[in-house]
Automatic annotation (TrEMBL):
Residues 4-123 form the Gfo/Idh/MocA-like oxidoreductase N-terminal domain. It comes from Aureobasidium melanogenum. GO terms for cellular component: cytoplasm. GO terms for molecular function: nucleotide binding; oxidoreductase activity. It comes from the Eukaryota. InterPro entries: Gfo/Idh/MocA-like_OxRdtase_N, NAD(P)-bd_dom_sf. This is Oxidoreductase-like protein family. One of its GO terms (biological process) is NADPH regeneration.
Length: 187
C-alpha cells in the first residue's frame, strides 16, 4: 500500500528534488494532488508526472480546489510543503491540524521567534506520535553527519553541543537568484 501524498508549491526545489524523489519511490508514494498559488504553475508541474494525473489545486482555481479542500481528502495522508517563507507557518499549521503528516522546506518561518512559536504550537496542539512533522534538512543524511551521530552515541548522555557550519550560495547560482532568498518577505 502506498502513502497518498500532495505537493504544496511548485518552485525549483519541488521540481528538482521533491517530485523526482516521489517519482523514484512509486512503491512508497502515490502523488494525489498538487497545490500552487496559481493554477498555471500547478499545471506546469503536473506535466512532469508521467505515471499518474494528480488533481490540481490553486488559489485561483475556485473554492472547490482550495488548500482547505485538498486537506479534507482522506486519500492524502501526507504533504510536502515548499512555499515562500512567510506562507510556510500557516500552511504547516493547517496541514497538521487536518491530521496530515508534513515534510516542510526550510526555513520554516521568517525569524527564530516565529519558528519557536510554530514549534511550541505543534507540541501543544498536535499528537506528535500520530502526526509527524519533519523539516527537510538534507545534511542529516550526509555520511559525515551520520558518522558524527554514531560517535556521539558512544559518548553516552550528551548535555548539549554546538555545530557551526558555513556554506556559500553565490551570485549566478540558481538558488541565489530566487526572489525568496533575496527578500524573505517575497510572496
Amino acid at each position: 500500500m502506498t502513502i497518498g501524498i500532495a505537493v504544496i508549491g511548485s518552485g525549483i526545489f519541488v521540481q528538482e528534488a521533491h517530485l523526482p524523489g516521489i517519482k523514484a519511490n512509486g512503491d512508497l508514494f502515490s502523488l494525489k494532488a498538487i497545490y500552487s498559488r496559481s493554477l498555471s504553475s500547478a499545471q506546469k508541474l503536473s506535466k512532469e508526472v508521467e505515471s499518474s494525473t494528480p488533481d490540481l489545486y490553486a488559489e485561483d482555481a475556485g473554492s472547490d480546489k482550495s488548500y482547505a479542500k485538498l486537506l479534507e481528502r482522506s486519500d492524502i495522508e501526507a504533504v510536502v510543503i515548499a512555499l515562500p517563507i512567510l506562507a510556510q507557518p500557516d500552511f504547516i499549521k493547517k496541514a497538521l491540524s487536518a491530521g496530515k503528516h508534513v515534510l516542510s522546506e526550510k526555513p520554516i518561518a521568517k525569524d527564530l521567534a516565529t519558528a519557536h512559536e510554530l514549534l511550541d504550537w505543534y507540541h501543544k496542539n498536535i499528537d506528535t506520535k500520530k502526526t509527524i512533522w519533519a523539516v527537510a534538512e538534507n545534511f542529516r543524511y550526509l555520511g559525515r553527519f551520520q558518522y558524527g551521530a554514531e560517535q556521539v552515541k558512544e559518548l553516552g548522555d550528551v548535555l548539549g553541543f554546538r555545530l557551526r557550519m558555513h556554506a556559500s550560495v553565490g551570485p549566478g547560482a540558481k538558488y541565489y537568484e530566487t526572489e525568496w532568498r533575496k527578500k524573505p518577505e517575497y510572496q
